[in-house]
Automatic annotation (TrEMBL):
Residues 1-206 form the Peptidase M60 domain. This is TRPM8 channel-associated factor homolog. The lineage of its organism: Eukaryota, Metazoa, Chordata, Craniata, Vertebrata. It comes from Lepisosteus oculatus (Spotted gar). Pfam families: Peptidase_M60 (PF13402). Belongs to the TCAF family.
Length: 280
């Protein structure tokens, strides 16, 4: 028998008296949309898993809200901690895998609320990425972090500059300066630099345009677009959503905005607060 607790069904008194003391080396804690598989000794001192799993319910609902999907996942995510995993420090997929040293990021309530859990949410973000708007390889390790930022700020109450050191204001500013200095070419547009493009849009217009666009993209069939086509489609959709001409903004980032689209978007009001103007 393994330690097991299912939120809303398992008895807390039974967990305290017997379930958490079961001899199997791995335990499972189950919330509505996620199942955690962790070493038993990491949760055997937990008197009541309810607060932890309730937080996980808020997290997964937040993930779904940003992705514009149903609040309860159609299939529960699994996050499994193990001695050896197939790639990296953590990886996405089914299940999401993490090393044992990271168990506190998914099963230690105090640590999660105080220090955050960037890595696990980063991997959940990977599972939300979609071919139609993921500009590979540039944004593969970038747009997944939109979920990390959103969950830390909207659920955990941890601002982005504290959630990850790469998002400290001076670090961000220097990164953009360096990118522009190198010519603002897509050769250098990846990971944190690519994330900046999306963060500037979020800081200018909030999260709602993202939710609407992610919803709209779900209604599209496969377009067979290359990266240039994807960039132009995203620039058009985002501009129309916020009713601003974002062509100059995206061009400042080195996006290959085509002339017909630029002419179409020129009919919209200019984005006077374009943050890239200060780097010109």
């Amino acid at each position: 028998m393994a330690p097991f607790f299912r939120l809303g069904e398992s008895s807390v008194s039974q967990w305290r008296s017997s379930a958490r003391h079961c001899p199997a080396p791995w335990a499972e804690l189950e919330a509505d949309s996620v199942i955690l598989t962790v070493p038993s000794d990491s949760v055997c001192s937990l008197d009541d898993p309810t607060p932890l799993l309730s937080l996980w319910n808020r997290i997964t609902k937040g993930v779904a809200k940003l992705a514009a999907t149903a609040p309860r996942f159609p299939r529960q995510e699994r996050i499994v901690a193990d001695v050896q995993i197939s790639a990296g420090w953590m990886h996405s997929g089914y299940p999401i895998m993490i090393h044992l040293k990271s168990v506190k990021e998914i099963a230690d309530l105090q640590h999660m609320k105080e220090a955050g859990m960037w890595g696990p949410i980063h991997e959940m973000g990977h599972n939300q990425q979609r071919e139609l708007w993921d500009i590979r390889p540039h944004t593969t390790e970038a747009t997944c972090n939109l979920w990390s930022v959103y969950i830390h700020e909207e659920v955990l109450g941890i601002p982005r500059h504290k959630a990850h050191e790469e998002l400290r204001p001076h670090t961000r500013k220097n990164r953009i300066k360096d990118y522009v200095r190198k010519g603002a070419t897509l050769e250098h547009w990846h990971v944190w630099t690519a994330l900046e493009t999306y963060l500037q849009l979020q800081e200018g217009f909030g999260w709602k345009p993202y939710m609407q666009l992610f919803s709209d993209y779900q209604e599209m069939s496969g377009t067979g677009l290359d990266n240039k086509g994807k960039m132009n489609l995203w620039a058009e959709r985002f501009s129309l959503q916020v009713k601003r001409n974002l062509a100059p903004f995206f061009r400042a980032w080195g996006w290959p905005i085509e002339e017909p689209l630029a002419a179409k978007l020129a009919a919209l009001p200019a984005w006077e607060e374009n943050p890239m103007s200060s780097y010109a």
